[in-house]
Amino acid sequence: MLAGPMDYTPGVLSLQGNNQEIASTQARQLALYVVIYSPIQMAADLIENYDKYPGPFQFIKDVAVDWSDTRVLNGEPGDFATIARKDRNSETWFLGSVTDENGRTFDVPLSFLDAGRTYTAEIYRDGPKAGLSGGARFDIVIEKKTVTAGDVLPARLAPGGGLAVRFVPQGAAPKKRK
Question: Which parts of the sequence belong to the Glycosyl-hydrolase 97 C-terminal oligomerisation domain (predicted)?
Fold first, then answer.
């Protein structure tokens, strides 16, 4: 997927598919929009489920689908990946990090951000009880913080989890998505 796009439908906030649970957290479903390059994206769940989870759905409404820059920050094929991408039509950056069935904790240097700029980081991360079973898959924390290229973002990915971040330059009007 680094060489070109593929078809994949993330964003299933109900975490249900074909009458079975999806082995994922909500934060991972959001992160997949960034990790997997697919310039024709869709919201793959039922509208009732997006109405039920308006916080996570906001990321789906805001995320770009085509990029001017891509940075692979870490990863191991089949295990985990962290990718930062810059929106082709704005100065906004996005970060997605996903893991397999193993939880992970690491720091993400934000050196990919433009030096000398301050950003509002809109963070969608696995909550403290997140995991692959039952209601734990829905444990998500949504928060905002101010960051620069010199900062480091701590990442804690639950088993089957993820982290999705939108970095909006301060002082710039973010481009709204429909």
Answer: 66-167
Query: What letter does residue 8 receive in the DSSP assignment?
Result: -
Residue ranges covered by each domain of the chain: 16-169
Three-class DSSP labels, 40-51: CCCCCCCHHHHH
64-102 confidence digits (pLDDT tens): 988 999 999 999 999 999 999 999 999 999 999 999 999
State the DSSP code for 118: -
Contacts of 114 (CB under 8 A, 6+ apart): 91, 149, 169
CATH 3.20.20.70, domain 16-169, yes or no: yes
Q: 85 near 41, Cβ under 8 Å?
A: no
Helix (H, G, I), strand (E, B) or coil at 63: coil
